[in-house]
Amino acid sequence: MNLKARAGNVGFWASLISxxxxxxxxxxxxxxxxxxxxxxxxxxxxLVFMGIINNPTTKNRYYSDD
Length: 66
Hints:
Blueprint: H1 3-7, H2 10-26, H3 34-53
Helix pairs in contact: 2-3
């Protein structure tokens, strides 16, 4: 695993920040409430999923496989 390649990847950071936001929500710490909070939660879940399937150490860019 190339940690330097992952740390320089924007997708990794978006996924990590989204995961931390969802972690706060799991402990009932509401950062944003109401309908806007639900929208942000949905976007955070998608970003975490995309970060899980992202592999910046492959030859192909973004979400393509080698």
